[in-house]
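Q: Could you fold this chain for me?
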Amino acid sequence: MSWNDIRLLDYVQDTDDNFWIVNDLREGEPRGFMVFEVCYDGPRFNPAMGKPYQRLSDQGIGPVPEVYKRVFRPLDFYKEHRDELTGVWQNYAVAMNKIGVPDSAIGIFGSYLLGFPVQKDVDFVIYGLENLELYYNNQDFFKQLLQAGNISPEHVAYQAQKYSGAFSPRYDLKTVLGRNWSGVQFGQGVGVLSTPRFIDPNRSITPTIAGENTELSGVEVVESLGSALLPRRVKVRVPGRPEIFELVSPLWMLQSFARRGDILDLCCLADFAQKLLVVSDRQNHHVQFRKKSSLIR
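A: Sure. Below is the predicted structure, expressed as structure tokens.
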């Protein structure tokens, strides 16, 4: 497989058998971070590799090694291993089919893709804008089929505390996390949360913008469903400009962060000629809510 064939949420096994997730695509450069590192006293044993590993915390987005042994693909893995799913994860796959999402548009990413036993949950990714629409329109029925609910306040607080050090305090993490409408929570309190990711294969590249960070105030969200996509894509109005801009972000934490009618204060990269805004830096960029809306569509 060539370097240019690597896609979002693929995993790369480097020459030392470490695993890297690809969670950002730029023109000609898959980007991500090492998520599992070989560690001979590590707590996670991978039977497929025959080695112990340690899971690394999110270190931010950077280049993925160009020299590698293997690429793991979510779509291929789901096709090969769907029938091996058990319990609630088998039910999850069946429920996606019942709301109209075909098996050909479903993938599995995360540790299970890499050969680790399921420890807590299985991570699913759904491909295609039409299937994002299907999931959105049938989300309540989907969760009823699984006897599950929405993300709880306890889980929001847990995640906000866990990841607060990785993001600028100017990100409103509790608001962002609480807007995860697609997340499926099993159990009360913190529970177990499974949030499907959504990818439009035709628009999976984050645009590259040169220049210095720009602060913008009073940015109005006019279309928000695309904030569930990876990368996030939101249509916005910038004060003083008649055109509609696109706000894009590869940051996984911003899943479904926007609502139609929100008024945002941003620090981002801006290309006013191309009508593009990019939020890609966890420490030097931010999203704040001057006005909060409840409208997704």
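A (continued): Residues 3-72 form one domain.
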